[in-house]
Structure formats: C-alpha cells, structure tokens
Amino acid sequence: MRKPYWIIAGVLVLFALAFGATSCLGPPLRKFEATRSMMDTFVTITVYSLDEATAEEVIAAAFARMEEIEKEASIFDEESEAFQLNRDGYLEAPCDDLLKLITMSLDFSQMTDGYFDITVQPLLELWQAGLWEESEAVQQSQINETLRLVGLDKIDIKDDTIYFTMGGVKITLGGIAKGYAVDEALEVIKDMGIKHALVNAGGDMAALGSKPKGEPWLIALVNPDDTSQSLANFSLSGKAIATSGNYERYFDPEKKAHHIINPKTGYSAEECISVTVIAGSATRADALATSVFVMGPEDGIALIESLADVECLIVGADRITMYASSGLSVYLGKSQ
After folding, report:
1. Looking at residue 333, what is its pLDDT?
2. Own/partner pairs for 246-249, CB < 8 Å, 24+ apart?
3. Do residues 278 and 333 make contact, with C-beta atoms less than 8 angstroms apart?
4. Which of 144, 253, 279, 294 could cysteine-pair with 269, CB 3.0–4.6 Å?
5. What pLDDT is attached to residue 315?
6. Could you report the per-residue pLDDT of 19-70, keeping only the tens digit for each?
7. Edge-to-edge strand list for the sheet holding 90-92
8. Mean per-residue pLDDT over the chain, rounded
9. What is the pTM (predicted TM-score) of this model?
10. Are 39 and 33 a contacting pair, CB within 8 Å?
C-alpha cells in the first residue's frame, strides 16, 4: 500500500535536518592545559580550543597577565610597588592593579566590619619572628603594641598617592591578589575568543562558562586529614570558588599558630579549619573566604547570607562539623 506523501516528505525533511546538523558541527574542541609555579603556589590554566597553537598563545598570555600582577603585588620583591609602599610608607602614581587591589581591600574591610584587613602584615612578621616561643604575657604585650599599626584608618588614598597614616604600617595582599590574578587571567582568555576555560591558582579558581558539551566543572574540596578523600564536590559553570584553610602554613612546629590572623585580636583565627566560598568572581571569593575564616561559623554564615550570589561551606575547628549557607546545595555535585 502506498504511504501518504506527507509521511514521506516528513522523513525527507528530518533526514535533511539531521545531515545539515552533522555537517555544521565541525571538528570538536580539544582540551589543553599548562601548569606553572607562581604566586607562592601552582597555577593551572585549562582551555578548550580547536588547535594547539591557539591554545598555547592564549595560555601564555593569561600567565603573562598573572605574572604582571604578581610583580606589582608582591611585598617581597624589591622591584614591586607593594614592596616600595611598605618600605616608604607612601607611593605616588601607583599602577592600576595595585590601586585596584588596595581599593577593593578597603571595600572588603568595610563589608566585613574589619575582619578582612590587609594591614595585618606587622602581626604576621611578629609571629614569623618567633612570638609563639614567648610566654602568654609577652605575646599579649607585643600584640597590643603591634595592633596600633592595624586598621582601615591606617591607609589613605589622595591625589593619586597611597599613604600610610603612621610609621610602621605595612600591607599584605595575600588574601586577595591570587583571586584578582585569576579573574584577570580569565578576562584575557575570554578576550582572545575562548569560551570554555578554568584557571586554578592553588585552590582559587574561576570558570569561563561550562565544559564544551554543557557539563559543569567538577571541583573537589580535599580532606586535609586524608587527601585521597573529598569533603565535598562542587559543580560550577561561570562561577568562582576559593578556599582558605589553616592546615598548610604554620609558624610553629606544634601547629598552633597559623598564617590567617584575626586583625582584632592579633592571634591566629581558631574557629574553623577550612572555608570555601563560591561567588561571581575569584577576587570576591578569595577575600570573603579569608574574612569568614576569621569571623567564625556563626558570624561568617550571617555575612554570606546577607550577600547576593554568594554561598559558602565551613569546616569547624573540630574537623567534623560542617556549616553551609542556605543556597549551597545548588552547587553540590557528584563525586569525581
């Protein structure tokens, strides 16, 4: 029996559409990746591109941008503007990157009621010099003296010059510079035509879109007590994530004094071992992760809940209790 013509026509149309779609797909995007040691950590840049030459050019440009930021933000490089600012107490005509970093830091300090504070460097130097070996009375006395150099009011920006309002003030950009560098690298990658990329600077990460087939980027929060396990797995597209933890850098052999200092007390923050923040930019995630770590679970979660488009996961000091913001479940992914 002869089939109705409309069925035959329909089959021909579907065949034509399928053939056309297949012919338009073109060659698949390929994954390219490179890792370099910089900013006191390892930085890995992942891009998806049609060819190796383009990928290498993009990755090289992104690393160059990060190196540029590192050169200006390092307080240990005598050629950097941040070093010169700490040495002289002022800096005329600062570069755009340093000015942005300090301006954003002041904004985060206000946002967090002073818990994010780049002027803690004198306190860090105090602990690095062996304060942990002194008696509690000596520790408190030296901390009280040093706290005079800490605070939002110790930095002023006027007439294209950054000033410290008293001698002895120093800054550290360790709580924000990596996140900023990640964001800037991702901007370079985007401007060069790449649509799928991930920049990871020692746990400070930002994703450009998703993976080529629409899959999210899967990111694991490693258990510091057993690196073969993860405490949580996050599923991200077009977002940034940063983790602050006290389990990597200690001043003392007993691991009681670590590098995340509470600018209000002068001592290491003790209410958490890890804080992971998801935000729209790595700069924001980086600064807020440090802030929440210092604030502790209760005040930290309250801060995150007050901010739009920001979520966090906190691991308490007992290494067991976990605190999550109300919208974190959106980003929880499957195990990798």
Report:
1. 74
2. 246/272, 246/273, 246/274, 246/293, 247/273, 247/274
3. no
4. 294
5. 94
6. 344 334 568 899 999 999 999 999 999 999 999 999 999 999 999 999 999 9
7. 90-92, 161-164, 155-158
8. 88
9. 0.89
10. no
Looking up tokens 């001043």, which residue turns up?
251
Q: pLDDT tens for residues 77-101?
A: 999 999 999 999 999 999 999 999 9
- Tell me where in the chain the CATH 3.10.520.10 domain(s) lie: 216-336
Residue 26: how many CB atoms within 10 A of its CB?
7
**pLDDT band for position 134 (50/70/90)?**
confident
The segment(s) of the chain belonging to CATH 1.10.3980.10 are 81-164
78 compared with 12, residue with greater pLDDT: 78
pLDDT over 70 at 256, yes or no: no
CATH for 81-164 (2.160.10.10, 1.10.260.40, 2.40.30.160, 1.10.3980.10): 1.10.3980.10
Structure tokens at 78: 């005598």
Tokens 């130097």 appear where?
125
